[in-house]
């Protein structure tokens, strides 16, 4: 990690300059900024730390920078360090060292881009977790892509990650779903059985009712509805969950665990939680309900845990579920991916952690904004097939899983975004998915056409063309990008990086001929073949983390 080593180099240079009297005594900053300059000709890395130190050293930033340049012991991969006004230090990588990184990348093999940042810390990422009352709709797509990519990034950064889907199969809405399923089942046989007024009236429930009728026959119609409804409802729930599994799998999303909310109440965990909160003095009974006294912990209002009719409230399940995560299953850290409409729930979740005797910093809520679908410049609100909601599967079938994942990952989670269905299927450079995957296909094409060129003894020091070096500079940034995405829980950095890497690939393809009929060019051609294979490995790796394919032909 070059940026980490440069921070250490700068810190050591400050201390050395202080010992020699060229800088006065002051505490070396714990976090020294190292960044990539906006202007490429300024260098590969830069630090503005001298401008921050001016107030402590009582010296001009340029003078501090000059002192640091004198006393820093530069790593072998840094060709030079120069001072730039008003006090930057710019670092330029050695071109010979850069070329050698082609061999280092190929030697990394399966460990390419694998960091040890997490040191095996156990992290659970819970995402999607939509109510199992119908097919997943487009509103769940961004949740799925964000959560799944986060999990992949954290795994690449050295965390022990578990992916989880929380099945909301308890509570009053589940009972209404069961009743709706029974009504549609009965109607499939011509029975005049009404759907509950607050039931699920979408066209998908009619289809589900017919599916249940085909599966069960009419035998359950002979039973009392009160007895038959749970049996029909349970099968309807199984069908919805199975469909969710299939739809998510179609976009490459798989889980380690599908956790049932109902299980929290079936094995006594909820009773144990209530006892724990009662002992801590965090429960109060009034208005016939049991309340969690969040105001004791600085909250703006108390929260209902058990309603006046004796049924658990929504927050009751949140408490029991997170107790299960942290105490029963002993995750070190939990990340919940929620829609931005849950912003108001963040404080109460922190108060819940405190009441359970857990460090609130171990729980992170990643909130994402909604997605607007567009086609032909117009907002798409309803399914063309049913006139109802737009399902996740419909969009996957239209644009493909790769386009779905890239577009939904191409903006930070807190940014609202528009998903252009026409652009997502366009076979042109305007479509970033096509542009990136075509870069990989181009690299594959080069290798197919250069089959007679061997790179086993290639001299990578021959890689001196600006387009080659620019490409290598981008390739070696992969670990930095993974670390940045993991630390900020922001996998959209991968999407940006993939696009920039693809752009450098296309420039290399344009400017650097690999296969030549001139024997004198064979040595350079062999070195370029090695570069192509290394670049292909990097591009394939970043696409893999994003859950996308790397096609060899297009």
Please sum up the structure shown.
The protein is of the alpha/beta class and 554 residues long.
Describe what you observe in this structure.
The protein has 554 residues and is α/β, with parallel strands linked by helices. The protein has five domains: 2-93, Gyrase A, domain 2, CATH 3.30.1360; 122-170 and 261-368, HUPs (Rossmann fold, 3-Layer(aba) Sandwich); 172-250, no CATH class; 371-424, no CATH class; 428-545, Orthogonal Bundle (Isoleucyl-tRNA Synthetase, Domain 1), CATH 1.10.730.10. The protein has helices at residues 2-19, 49-57, 61-71, 95-108, 141-156, 172-187, 203-216, 225-250, 263-266, 269-279, 314-328, 346-355, 392-399, 401-409, 421-424, 432-449, 466-475, 478-488, 492-511, 522-545; strands at 45-47, 78-84, 88-93, 122-126, 160-167, 257-260, 283-286, 289-292, 303-306, 333-339, 363-368, 371-375, 378-379, 417-420. The strands form four sheets. The chain has a five-stranded parallel β-sheet with strand order 6-5-4-10-11, with helices on both faces. A three-stranded antiparallel β-sheet has the order 1-3-2. β7 and β8 (289-292) form a beta hairpin. It is globular and about 85 Å long.
